[in-house]
Structures are given as structure tokens and as C-alpha cells.
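so my prof wants the structure for this chain in the C-alpha cells format not the other one, which i didnt know existed until like an hour ago. anyway here's the sequence
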Amino acid sequence: MQELVSCAISIDDVRDIFGATPELADRLRASAAARFQRPQASHRRWLRPLLRHDPELEVARDTPSAEDVSALLAGAHIPPDRVAASWRLLLGWVEDLAVRSARVPWDRAAFDRLEWNLARAGLNSDYSLRRLADRDLGIPLHPMPDQVAGYAKHVHAVETRDALRAVRDHPELEPGDREVLDPILSVLDAASADPRLDVVTIGARA
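here's what i got, hopefully its the right format
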């Protein structure tokens, strides 16, 4: 299952993760240690030669490592086989640093239907939900194929919040639409309350 994660955070705070100050690096290392604790190694090591795949190693491929932490904080090159784990790590940090964040289900067909319903309700296409991820994040970690990753500046977040609020109760919207729309609106509300905040949107595996 896929999710969209929307965060009220300054884009500069996201970019500052790469080449972090010592104080920020310490905070993010502690966050990573708490969020991504590795499973305890099994004592049944004698079984490993009999297994086609070692379950512990399978988990590790998708779990951020200490090397991933150091590479992101230094803004260093990320090997292709560590990109997925690095995005999990970065997203966790962005959520921790954000003033508010929300996760909503990401299904392309359902999302297209929501956008269509919003348009029928009178939403200007300039304020479609997709536009919240229009701008490149400008970070060394590049999106994976088909991954949503972008941001909207503060002024666009405010205008989008106002436009969505105006159509939120329109009869063209279905009850399920509001279950996706309302969490995003809560993030837009938080970003609108502080001129320093933008809105960052990143796709993730649930």
C-alpha cells in the first residue's frame, strides 16, 4: 500500500538536513535510532545455511543503517541499493521536524477521482492537490521512479487552503473524498499560520 505524507515545514529545514550542523545531526541521529531500531538477531544461526533467504538480511535492505544516516547528513552520494532505505530515513526526519504532518492513502485511480470531483466542485486547477508537490525539493536524494516528492511555497499553500475550504462541503465531493482531503487541509492550516512554513509532500510505502 502506498501513502502520501504531507508536512508543514520550511523547505530550508529539509535542505539543511544535508550537511547538517552538529546540533541538528545529533538530534536526527537520535531520531533515527528511536524510529528504526533493528530487530534482535536470531540465535538460530545454524539454520541460515539452509535458508534460501535470510529474513534478517531481507529486513536490513529496507531498514536505514548507520551508514545511511551518515551519508544523508553529509549530503554524500547514495548507492542505488540504499535509495529506498534513505527515503524512509529522510521522511521520518521530515515528519519529526514538521509542525504538522498527515499520511493519507495513495491510490492513483482514487486520487484522480478526487481531483475530478474537486474540479467539478469548482476548484481552480492552479490549486489541485498535485500542485502541492510541483516544485523540486532541491536535495541530493533523487526521487525513485514514480515517487511523488515535491513542495509548495507558503503563499501557494495558503491560497490552496482557501480554495479547498471553499469547496470542501460541495455536494460533488463524496464522503471518502473528505477522508483524504481533511488531513491535507489540517497540514495546510498549520502552514498557513506561519509565514516561515511551506508544504512538503512525499510518497511512501505504508
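also thought this was worth mentioning. The two ends are 5 Å apart (CA to CA).
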